[in-house]
Predict the 3D structure of the following.
Amino acid sequence: MEQSIKERIASLRGLLSENNFSAFIIPSTDPHLSEYVASHWKSREWISGFSGSAGTVVVTLEKAGLWTDSRYFLQAADQLEGSGITLFKDGLPETPSIIEWLTSEMAVGSTLGIDGKMFSVSDVEEMKNVLSKKNIAVETSLDPFESIWIDRPLMPQDPAFIYETQYSGVSCLDKIAQIRQKMEKVDVESLLISNLDEIAWALNLRGRDVKCNPFVVSYLLITDKKTIYFIAPEKLTADVSEYLSTQQVEVRGYDEINSALNELTASSLLINPARTNYDVFSAVNPSCKIVRGSSPIALLKAVRNEAEIAGIHAAMIRDGVAMVKFLRWLEMAVPTGHETELTIDEKLHEFRAAQDLYMGESFDTIAGYKEHGAIVHYSATPESCSVLKPEGFLLLDSGAQYLDGTTDITRTIALGSLTEEEKIDYTLVLKGHIAIATCKFPYGTRGAQIDVLARHALWQRGMNYLHGTGHGVGHFLSVHEGPQSIRLNEVPVLLVPGMVTSNEPGVYKGGRHGIRIENLTLVCKDVETEFGEFYRFETLTLCPICTKGIIKSLLSDTEINWLNYYHQVVFERLSPTLNAEEIAWLREKTLAI
């Protein structure tokens, strides 16, 4: 019989007592510190019953708490009911941090337990530094779920597959050579890669281990002479094994990473302390000098080559066709009163799945109608989902994985009549979107320097949004990738040609509506003058922007011209693959305003 949440927590407490621990922290990640994790590592969900994508559980011998952000306050309160776990609303001024709470709950001289595989080097070192001042020890060696999680899902078993050079543009051998050149520049002999997206990029391998992300659970060690890939042997087909051999990649078992690091003879090892787990870091041979810094793969991967750029353009046409078919269907379906936030997600999936090279969604669709649109990462459930009516806004954020590119698009769609407030807010968000889309900037510009352009019109009316304006997007990889971004806080990474970022300003009013307009963009060269090189954004996404909510008098001539030109491009590129009825619909939606 399945254990209750209280029984699971009791089992954990029994193990803590056996090990003389006073508390244990359970995060939402995996040994690769991934955003999305395989079922095997969903320990936080198993121990608490809370299924949101972000949150941390802390269990002491007498109390338990879950910390999660505002996206999940309602869901967490519902799912934690009767569990004995207290909800801590992260981000509110009155909410203590986990460490603050622990220092008030734990006795001097007691021990906190964590699984070192689930925390970064930076996080553990900071935790130890703060708690040591309170004479609280941190023990990192215990994974309690190995023993207390009955019927724990197995490690992912799906085989890896080769990502062909026609899509990647550069062979694995050539990528490894590029990485070694970067290693030589910073004078390191070896490099440890834990990030699954960086490993997938470097080896031109993909997999199905992680929902929405085509990754293979593995580690990669690159030295000046060898490339060693740590992967469960059952995940290697004959073709993949032969391929790795031709790319001069040595294969070892996934569980051999710690022993390999302990035996490492290289004089130096580069790791990213924010993206490497503490357990593997602790296994490194003490005679090897650890150099802390960013992985050189992050920037290499962020700058698309010609084949990747051609691929994302092709993927955008197919994704745009799917979106047009869906939006046309939606317009006819809403008045029937039969569609909900969940059913439209299923229909959008149908249209995308019919496209060539489709490999799945790039993230779980966010379909928020009216007040649900104000919840930035709303996730509809059978209990919460709204029936769509021919009035107000629907915020629809979705994306797909294609072999030749990853897409991410948000449209806020007027399903019928709108209030004056909704129209004003929509137009202000559109102004911010266009400000980024039309921005030109000199070499040396960082995302934080242009983020204000997206917010200016909102700020003038006393409004704002708390998420970033733009994130990097991978190439048949993760939909959220760095190191580039467009956001208020400083990220010291230059925007350079070949980088793909989102452009997604928004505004959210609790209990009323949420608005976001998102396209993906490519940084391109613009002009070279006596003041140096200037760059611009090319909009990649091809899909009409809803014009029903626009107050034209609030737009400048430049903004109107941009929107009309964008819609002209959308029509020209998508219409050749649509039928007559779809072409007529698209022509109407892309008419000049």
Remarks:
- Residues 160 and 207 are 5 Å apart (CA to CA).
- The longest strand covers residues 519-529.
- DSSP finds 19 helices and 28 strands in the chain.
